[in-house]
Model the fold of this input.
Amino acid sequence: MPRTKPQAEALATAVALKPEAWGADFRAQQPAASTPGTVAVLDEQCRWERRALPQGVLASLSRYSEIPATGTKGEVKVTAAVTVHATALDADDQLSTTLEEPLRCREQQVRTDERISGLMSTGTPYGQGNNTYSDDQVVEIGSYLTGSSKHTYLWYVTRLGTLTVAVSVKGAEGYSDDELVTYGSQATNAMLSRVEFELGGKS
Done:
């Protein structure tokens, strides 16, 4: 695992999915990526914002993609994020915080015109359920609200040692929950495969 910021930044850049890795229908959102040297934080007012990297985080990168609205189908928005921590305990703390945040903030402000609500989360450590591929995973499910529309929201956060990969999927008109779950699970698997490749094999 990376031990310096340059190593961590290189790994995050290699692992975080660009639009074409999600599928042929995807394109980059604007902005296409997070501000360098920042990490996403849920503040005291339950609003998501970017803050400078805290102690214990070496690098963090989020890339934002979407399927444009066409005909009877709405716009699906997705995020692929990678955070490299200094220690496994720091990474584990992120999973614990993710698991607990829906209890503190059942409704969260994502952007000015985007909210998520009705959130529930569940954790699956290695060896439980079907988790044979990571040290820990948290899945969060709720509703994505924009304007007068309400659709499914999914968030997967997966830890391998000091690294966490996260995938969010914001549903839209014309897309089934099964399709959204497929996007999320395939993106998670793709990033875990990239981690394995970049680190030289299974850990």
In short: The first strand starts at residue 27 and ends at 33. The helical segments are 5-15, 19-22, 88-104, 177-198. The chain has a mean pLDDT of 94. The longest helix spans residues 177-198.
